Amino acid sequence: MPTLSTPSRPKEAKLFRNNRSQAVRIPVEFELPGDRVLIHREGGKLIIEAVTRPTNIVELLAEWRKEAPLGPEDQGYLLDTNIISDVIRSPDGLAARRIEQVGPKEIFTSIIVASELRYGCAKKGSPKLLTKVEGILETIPVLPLDIPADAEYGGIRAELEATGQPIGMNDLLIAAHAYALGLTLVTNNTREFSRIRSLNVENWLER
Asked: pLDDT for 43-87, tens place per residue?
């Protein structure tokens, strides 16, 4: 956390007190960014430092991820491709704000979703888009497809085909992945995923 530079000569400032706190009116030449500061003592000095905040959802996720667990514990949310795509397009949009509300410990995505995102980059041939995709995939844990997702996939696919309501192959894998891990699937495609019995589905792009 950077210490703010100050004029070489100290300047007197007025101190205000009440029964519970103190406030100081800082001269304008001691400019402070943002609206929060960190205060601590070093010897006989009182040090005031700026509190730097992430400027977008990707930076916020990266900061959170430093202390977040590496995998789910039968709770949390698995983000579908269209949700992550929206976060990339609209870093301050509905999905990004919902991620910030939920917090880092419950946000994940699937290797299938990561594959779809990378396919989109390859198809468009956009280095700029690839940089954005890689940036967000570095901050949201990408979960490998593992046992028992294979068993869930088989059961879900057979049930949907029996009722004449099949869904896309990648969507099947994503649904099976979320179901096997006990995660809520966050998607803008609730129409298809709601066909899967007992799969928890939410749409963070709906107001």
From this structure: 777 777 776 655 566 666 666 555 555 555 557 999 999 999 999
Structure tokens given for 65? 């991820």
3-state helix, strand, coil in the chain (%, to 5): 40, 15, 45
Tell me the per-residue pLDDT of 7-27, one tens digit each, with 9 for 90 and over: 456 777 777 777 667 777 777
User: Which pair of structure tokens corresponds to residue 176?
Assistant: 């099976």
For the record, the structure tokens of 109 come out as 């995505």
Segment 114-148, tens digit of pLDDT: 999 999 999 999 999 999 999 999 999 999 999 99
Within this chain, do residues 47 and 129 fall inside the same structural domain, yes or no? no
The CATH number of whichever domain residue 143 belongs to comes to: 3.40.50.1010
CA 87 – CA 94 distance, rounded (Å): 8
Report CA-CA distances (Å) from 19 to 23, 38, 146: 12, 21, 59
Does residue 68 sit in the same domain as residue 140? Answer: yes
Q: Which residues constitute the domain of residue 7?
A: 1-53
Q: Which residue stretches of 6-140 are H helix?
A: 57-65, 81-89, 94-102, 111-124, 127-137
Domain count, the chain: 2
Rounded Cα–Cα distance for residues 34 and 191 (Å): 42
Q: What is the spatial distance between Cα 85 and Cα 181, in angstroms, rounded to a whole number?
A: 23
